[in-house]
Amino acid sequence: MEPAKPFRTKAERAAYIDRRLAALYPETPVPLEHRDAYTLLIAVLLSAQCTDKRVNLVTPRLFALADTPSAMARVPVAKIQEIIRPCGLSPRKARAISELSRLLLERHGGQVPRTFAELEALPGVGHKTASVVMAQAFGVPAFPVDTHIHRLAQRWQLSDGRNVEQTEADLKRLFPEAHWNQLHLRIIFYGREHCTARGCDGTVCEICRTLFPNRRRATRVNKP
Question: What domains are defined for the chain?
């Protein structure tokens, strides 16, 4: 652990965070279990407003039934919905999985496209989902911003956090492009393990204490 010292600029804070997270998490396995770009795409789609742990409990059954666009396109939407129900938003997600599988066959020869524009044109695929697939399936530099990253970027004063788009742009400016794909996972890991929404108020975890040694702990009020 580095000695407590003032970090006066965003660049100084970012450099420390980059070093410390690399030391804490030298390996960055993708938390969502998958076999290829297609199964990763489906798993990330299912993870919207759902934990990775729950997605990993659901996808084995789904992928045993169909793990390619051609196989999934033949599965009735009702059957997909039945399997993925524990992930929440199952009617919308089931329709998206069925429709995007069909479009992959019609437009992309059954392959997951390798551009942001083509991915984001698929049903149920927003910029964050496309970013995860581009980064983790194809190795294209991207910085997907989930709730952990958005929260920690504000807490560490790397971004004003007006929206996830601004947070993504701010983080891309602060960190080397070559680090983006691993770093976004490292921040997620750290946010889940150490700098949680309830467990750290910006003064408790190692990184917060190192970055802001003089930050006063928030007063907690016990409600009856």
Answer: 10-28+143-211 (1.10.1670.10), 37-138 (1.10.340.30)
